[in-house]
Amino acid sequence: MLKLNSNNFIKYIVLLILNSLVASLLLILVSVYSHNFSFLYFIWNLFLSWVPLIVSVILIYLLRKKLWSSWSALILSFIWLIFIPNSFYMISDFIHLIEVPINYILYFTVAFTAIIYSASINGYFSLYLIHREINKRFSFKASWFLVALICLISGYAIYIGRVLRWNSWNILTNPGGILFDVSDNFLHFNSLKNSVFTSFLFFVLIFSIYLLLYIGLKLYKKLKLSDN
After folding, report:
1. Please, what's the b/e burial string for 190-213 (b: 16 or more CB within 10 A of its CB; e: otherwise)?
2. pTM of the predicted structure, to 2 decimals
3. For residue range 16-31, what is the model confidence (pLDDT) as tens digits?
4. Which of 71, 74, 87, 100 could form a disulfide with 49 if both were Cys (CB 3.0 to 4.6 A apart)?
């Protein structure tokens, strides 16, 4: 079982940090080479993908001492839930490749992929940590239902961010504005249709990749035990 204070956990966190640094350096390198610094804000988006991972680690430590129903655990869970979509939101940033001159599109494809991959890995690891805690408290089916629900919420949050142009922290700073736009979206059929389809696509993508990673990890553990 993975322990947060184990050497393996610390080593993996270090690898994630190095991965983010390498991805950021690749983007900076391509930006300097192409004299196009329009996408350096991706590094900020990558930083945001660390927020849910950090929060999930803090939450797990807290759950050793308190119930999940405690106010502190609930607040951390809410913060985690509103920030976890940021990790997967960057997948939609591939859309910005249409803004890149054709001479440099290959370089930026590599840089975008590095950044988006790093952010997604942070998100999936954070989701896995929370999934482990859910597994301790709920049945197998219930825990997977909650994981699927989190992925679905993330899918809709990506739509809110990409199309309606709201950020995670706006839930705290301007909840009325988000509620108005979401309500207005439900009142117009074409907008509702687009939001449902977009959310569904990202849900399938996020959940299927997580499922593949989860099953792969379980198979690896079984193979490792059989080798021993």
Report:
1. eeeeebeebbeebbebbbebbeee
2. 0.92
3. 999 999 999 999 999 9
4. 87
